[in-house]
Write a structure and sequence with these properties.
The complex is a heterodimer of chains A (449) and B (308).
Chain A lengths: L2 E5 L9 E7 L5 E8 L5 H4 L20 H16 L5 H32 L11 H7 L1 H22 L8 E2 L2 E2 L5 H30 L3 H6 L6 E6 L11 E5 L5 E4 L4 H4 E4 L8 E4 L17 E2 L2 H7 L6 H14 L8 H22 L17 E9 L2 E9 L5 E7 L1 H4 L1 H15 L7 H12 L4
Parallel strand pairs in A: 6-11
Antiparallel strand pairs in A: 1-2, 2-3, 4-5, 6-7, 7-8, 9-10, 12-13, 13-14
Chain B lengths: L2 E7 L5 H7 L3 H7 L2 E5 L23 E7 L2 E3 H13 E7 L1 H5 L11 H8 L19 E6 L9 E3 L6 H12 L72 H4 L17 H11 L31
Parallel strand pairs in B: 1-2, 1-3, 3-5, 5-7
Antiparallel strand pairs in B: 4-6
Classes of the chains: A alpha+beta (449), B alpha/beta (308).
C-alpha cells in the first residue's frame, strides 16, 4: 500500500518547513518534498516606505540574522540616494556584521546541530536537544551558553540592539565607537577567538572523526556554489565580488549589481520560497536528483569552496587542512558544519583585526544623505548565503519596487535534492524508524535553514 | 514538579526565540523548574507522531503555552487553536503576536495583490503560477493572536526584553499574575527635555543626532526636540536596559516596536495628536501609515483599494 510520511515541523531549524515522503507499494521512496511554509511579503509591504526606514523593517525577515538584512538594506539605500558611507561608517558596519556571524555560528553548531552528534542521531528525541547536552556535557554546555551570550552582549552594548538592530543608517552608522568601547570589545573578541579555536578542535575530534561515514554520504549531492571573495580571492563576508562556481570547480566572477544577469528564480507549486538557479549557465532549472540543472549552493561550504584562501592565519590553516582532506569543491553536505567552524574562526579573527585598527574610533561615521529617485543593490554574505536587496525609489526617496534574494532561498532546491538523496538511500522496503527520519532532517539541518 | 511548557512560532522571524535564549543565566536557572514538551526551534517533538504516520495533529498538554508571531495562514490558526486547547495559561510574546508586528504591514494590501507582487519580481521566472500544493493558504489578513483565541498574558516587544521574559516566567512559576509596564518609552528615557516651542516640524532620520559620544545618554537632548520623528511618546515602555530605551542608546529615534501604550491604542493617531498638542505640524510626517508598522492588526491597517 502506498503511504505518506509527514515530518512536521522540521525541528531545530530557524524557519518553518515540513518534509513529505511518499512511499510506493513496496515501501520505497517514490517522491520527497521539502515544503517551505512561510510567506510574509516583505517585497510588497516595504513599498511606499521612506527608504531610510527600510533597514529597520527588513531586519525582521530574520531574528537570527537581522544584522545581515539590516546592512544589505543600508547598502542598497546608500546606492538609491547616491551616498558613500565614510570609512569608519563602513568599518563599524562590517564589525557588527562579522560579530553577528560569530553568535550565529555558535547557535547553529552547538544549540541546533550538535544534539545529533553529541547525543547521537539515534538518541531519544526527548533528550536529543540542548537540554540533553546540558545534562550530558555540562562543561561544554556552560561554555557555549557563555560564549553565545558574550557575542550578543558585545553587540548590544555597543549598538543598542543585537536583535533587530538600528545602528546602521543610510550613509554609515548612527554612533561612533569611543576608545573605552573599543578596548572592551577587543577583550571580548579575543576571548571569542580562543573559543573558536577550541570549537574547531572540538568539532574535529568529537564530531567529524566520529561520524566519518555519515559526514561523507548523508544528503550528499553534486552542485555548483556561490560566495563572496575580494580581489585576491579571499573569502569575505561583508563586501566583495560574487564568485559562481560550477560543479566541476571552474568559476566566473561578477559584481553584485549585475545579479539579475546571472541568477533567476524558479517557482515550484509546492513551496512558498522560490528557488534561485544559475541562469547564466544557460541550462535552465531542473530538480532531478540524477541530472540537476542550474543548481548551486550557498552558505559556509559554498564560501569555503569558492575562495582561494582565507584572509586570516588560523582560518587559513584550517582551510588548508580541510582542502587536503576533501578537495575542492567539497560536495558532502554534512561538511557544511566543518566549514561553519572554519568561518567562525575567520569571523573572530576579522573582528579582532578590525578592532585593532584605530580607524574604528574615527568620529566621522556618517555622510549626509538626500532622498532621491534611484536604484540600489546591497549585498552581504549572510550566515545562510549571499543576501541581495534590490530597491527602486521615487523622487521622494520612498520605495517603489523591491526584490530580495535571501540567503536560505538559494539552498531550497539543493535541500530538496539532499532530502531526496537521504530518503532514497535510507528507506528501503518500508523500514522506518526515528533514527532514520532524524537523519533525513540532519541533511536539512546542515544547511541551517 | 516542573512546569510543562509548549512553545510555537507562527508568522515570525525567530527573534523572540533568540530573546528567550538571551535570558542567559536566568534561563539556565529557570530550566530546572521548567520542562519543554514542545518547541520546534530547539526540541524534536512532531505534530504527526515521531514517525510521521498519524493523520491528526497532536500537541502535548502543557501548563504554559508560549506563542510568538502573528496569525497569517490557516496552519498558524490550526496550531494556535490546538495550543489554546492544550495549554492552561497561554502567553503571547513579541509584538507580532500582540499587535500584528511587521507582518501586519501586509494588511495595507489584499492577499492577492501581495502574492502577485511577490511572484513577479525582477528575477522570478516569467509566467510562474502561484504555489499552493501542500501549503497553507493565507488568511484574508494578518491577525494578532488575541483576535483569534483567548490570551492570558500579552508581552510585546520586537524583540521582547529578555529581562522581562525572565521576570514574567518567574512570576508564573510562583503562580502569580505578571504585571506589565503601563508607561511610555518617554517615561523611561533619560534624555534632556526642555519643553514645547522650538520645533515646528519633524525630520526624517537622514543625518545623525547632535550629541557628544563621550557623554552618556543623560546629556543628549531629546531626539524629538532635536526635530527628529520619534515615537517614544506613543510607545509602550519595556525595552530599556540599564535605564535607557534601546534605540535611544544607539542614538537613534524610537519607531514604536513595543506597540501602543494603552491596550487598544492607535499609534498613528496618538502620534499625530502628540505632535499637534506640541505645536508640531503632523503633516510633515512622511508615510504616516508606517507609524502603524508594529501594530497594524486589530483592523488598524486596511487596504486602500485604488490608491496609487
Amino acid at each position: 500500500m502506498e503511504k505518506t510520511l509527514h515530518i512536521q515541523p522540521v525541528t531545530r531549524i530557524e524557519g518553518h518547513a515540513s518534509i513529505v515522503i511518499h512511499l510506493d507499494d513496496d515501501g520505497n521512496v517514490k517522491e520527497t518534498r521539502l515544503h517551505i511554509m512561510s510567506l510574509r511579503g516583505f517585497e510588497k509591504f516595504i513599498e511606499g516606505r521612506p527608504a531610510e526606514e527600510v533597514p529597520r523593517i527588513v531586519n525582521r525577515i530574520c531574528g537570527i540574522c537581522p544584522w545581515m538584512h539590516h546592512l544589505a538594506a543600508c547598502k542598497a539605500v546608500d546606492s538609491c540616494f547616491g551616498v558613500s558611507p565614510t570609512l569608519a561608517g563602513h568599518r563599524l558596519r562590517e564589525l557588527c556584521q562579522v560579530m553577528a556571524h560569530i553568535s550565529d555560528k555558535i547557535l547553529h553548531f552547538f544549540f541546533l546541530a550538535a544534539p545529533d552528534f553529541v547525543i547521537g542521531p539515534e538518541g531519544d528525541y526527548t533528550v536529543r536537544n540542548i537540554v540533553g547536552i546540558v545534562k550530558q556535557a555540562p562543561e561544554l554546555a556552560s561554555k557555549v551558553v557563555k560564549m553565545r551570550q558574550l557575542g550578543q552582549t558585545m553587540l548590544e552594548r555597543f549598538a543598542g540592539k543585537a536583535i533587530h538592530p538600528v545602528a546602521g543608517v543610510v550613509g554609515g552608522f548612527a554612533k561612533p565607537m569611543v576608545e573605552e568601547e573599543r578596548k572592551e570589545l577587543l577583550k571580548g573578541a579575543r576571548t571569542l577567538l580562543d573559543f573558536s579555536l577550541y570549537a574547531l578542535d572540538y568539532g574535529r575530534k568529537n564530531v567529524f572523526s566520529r561520524y566519518e561515514g555519515l559526514m561523507k554520504e548523508l544528503g550528499t549531492i553534486k552542485t555548483g556554489f556561490l560566495g563572496t571573495v575580494d580581489s585576491e580571492g579571499c573569502l569575505r563576508l561583508y563586501d566583495g565580488l560574487l564568485r559562481l562556481m560550477r560543479p566541476d570547480g571552474s568559476f566566473m566572477e561578477f559584481a553584485p549589481e549585475t545579479y539579475t544577469e546571472h541568477i533567476a528564480e524558479h517557482v515550484a507549486a509546492w513551496s512558498y520560497a522560490k528557488m534561485p538557479y544559475a541562469k547564466v549557465w544557460g541550462e535552465g532549472f531542473c530538480l532531478d536528483l540524477n541530472r540537476p540543472k542550474g543548481i548551486y549552493r550557498t552558505n559556509t561550504l559554498a564560501r569555503i569552496n569558492v575562495a582561494e584562501k582565507m584572509a586570516t592565519s588560523h582560518a587559513q590553516a584550517a582551510l588548508e587542512e580541510f582542502r587536503e582532506k576533501f578537495g575542492r569543491p567539497a560536495q558532502s553536505t554534512l561538511l557544511y558544519h566543518w566549514a561553519r567552524l572554519i568561518e567562525l574562526v575567520y569571523a573572530c579573527e576579522r573582528t579582532v583585526e578590525i578592532l585593532e585598527d584605530k580607524v574604528i574610533t574615527d568620529r566621522d561615521v556618517r555622510s549626509a544623505a538626500t532622498p532621491r529617485a534611484g536604484r540600489g543593490i546591497g549585498c552581504v554574505e549572510a550566515p545562510r548565503g549571499t543576501l541581495i536587496h534590490d530597491y527602486m525609489t521615487d523622487e521622494n526617496g520612498c520605495i517603489l519596487k523591491a526584490n530580495m534574494i535571501v540567503g536560505t532561498t538559494h539552498n531550497i532546491a539543493p535541500m530538496n535534492l539532499s532530502v531526496e538523496q537521504a530518503a532514497r538511500s535510507l528507506i528501503k522496503g518500508g523500514n522506518i524508524d526515528e533514527e532514520l527520519l532524524n537523519k533525513i532532517e540532519m541533511a536539512v539541518r546542515a544547511y541551517d535553514p | 514538579m516542573a512546569m510543562k511548557v509548549a512553545e510555537e512560532s507562527l508568522s515570525a522571524c525567530s527573534g523572540c526565540e533568540i530573546a528567550i535564549l538571551n535570558m542567559g543565566d536566568a534561563l539556565v536557572e529557570l530550566l530546572g523548574q521548567m520542562e519543554f514538551v514542545h518547541m520546534p526551534i530547539l526540541f524534536d517533538h512532531k505534530y504527526f507522531g515521531q514517525l510521521g504516520q498519524n493523520q491528526k495533529m497532536e500537541m502535548p498538554e502543557a501548563d504554559l503555552g508560549i506563542i510568538t508571531g502573528a496569525v497569517a495562514n490557516e496552519e498558524h490558526l490550526r496550531v494556535l487553536q490546538k495550543m489554546r486547547t492544550r495549554c492552561d495559561v497561554l502567553m503571547a510574546i513579541g509584538t507580532c503576536a500582540t499587535h500584528g508586528g511587521i507582518p501586519a504591514l501586509l494588511n495595507s494590501w489584499s492577499t492577492e495583490e501581495a502574492m502577485e507582487t511577490i511572484f513577479s519580481t525582477s528575477t522570478t521566472d516569467l509566467g510562474s503560477s502561484l504555489p499552493y500544493q501542500g501549503l497553507p493558504p493565507l488568511l484574508d489578513r494578518v491577525y494578532a493572536v488575541d483576535e483569534k483565541v483567548r490570551v492570558d498574558v500579552l508581552m510585546p516587544g520586537c524583540p521582547p526584553n529578555p529581562e522581562h521574559i525572565a521576570e514574567v516566567l518567574a512570576c508564573l512559576l510562583k503562580g502569580d499574575r505578571p504585571l506589565l509596564p503601563e508607561k511610555s518609552v518617554c517615561d523611561t528615557c533619560p534624555t534632556i527635555r526642555k519643553g514645547k516651542g522650538k520645533v515646528k516640524m519633524v525630520r526624517r532620520f537622514l543625518e545623525n543626532a547632535q550629541y557628544d559620544p563621550e557623554e552618556p545618554i543623560e546629556k543628549m537632548e531629546c531626539l524629538l526636540e532635536q526635530g527628529f520623528m520619534c515615537m517614544g511618546p506613543v510607545t509602550a515602555a519595556g525595552c530599556a536596559t540599564n535605564g535607557v530605551p534601546r534605540c535611544i542608546s544607539a542614538r537613534v529615534p524610537c519607531r514604536g516596536c513595543f506597540g501602543p501604550v494603552r491596550p487598544g491604542g492607535n499609534q498613528m493617531l496618538d502620534m499625530m495628536n502628540a505632535l499637534a498638542s506640541n505645536g508640531i505640524d503632523w503633516k510633515t510626517i512622511v508615510d504616516r501609515r508606517s507609524l502603524l508598522r508594529f501594530s497594524g492588526a486589530h483592523g488598524l491597517l486596511k487596504p486602500l483599494g485604488q490608491r496609487s
